[in-house]
């Protein structure tokens, strides 16, 4: 199982190396208001598992609501690269679309976590509210 990846935004201004906590086995989507609009599939990495090798100064931070989660995107092309997770601030969520050799369409099923009723607000573990399926034609 591969756990180390090179990643970049669309324009290549932001580039990073990442060590994923469990390879691509942590793929997920979130149903919160921001993630519904963003539409990304994320995987997990510990905070010390992400190394921005180019363009750290070009990353823009976006926060909302409790401001616990920190969402980063390239200020040149606008692509979301990663975020510090609200449900586990010791981890980053990494956009799989930014990983070299990985496509969000590689996964026939992706768990969708309940970000509307966030576990930090409800004192429970994040329930899975469904599964997103991709069927190749």
From TrEMBL:
One of its GO terms (molecular function) is carbon-sulfur lyase activity. Residues 5-121 form the CENP-V/GFA domain. Pfam families: GFA. The keyword Zinc applies. InterPro entries: CENP-V-like, CENP-V/GFA, Mss4-like_sf. Keywords: Metal-binding, Zinc. It comes from the Bacteria. Signal peptide: none annotated. PANTHER family: CENP-V_GFA DOMAIN-CONTAINING PROTEIN, CENTROMERE PROTEIN V. Belongs to the Gfa family. This is CENP-V/GFA domain-containing protein.
């Amino acid at each position: 199982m591969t756990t180390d990846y090179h990643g970049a935004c669309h324009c290549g201004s932001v580039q990073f190396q990442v060590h994923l906590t469990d390879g691509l086995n942590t793929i997920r989507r979130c149903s919160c208001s921001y993630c519904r609009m963003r539409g990304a599939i994320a995987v997990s990495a510990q905070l010390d598992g992400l190394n921005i090798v180019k363009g750290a100064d070009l990353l823009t931070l976006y926060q909302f609501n409790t401001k616990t989660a920190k969402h980063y995107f390239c200020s040149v092309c606008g692509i979301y690269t990663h975020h510090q997770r609200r449900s586990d601030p010791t981890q980053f969520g990494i956009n799989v679309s930014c990983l070299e050799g990985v496509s969000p369409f590689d996964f026939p099923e992706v768990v969708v976590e309940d970000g509307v009723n966030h576990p930090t607000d409800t004192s429970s573990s994040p329930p899975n509210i469904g599964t997103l399926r991709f069927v190749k034609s």
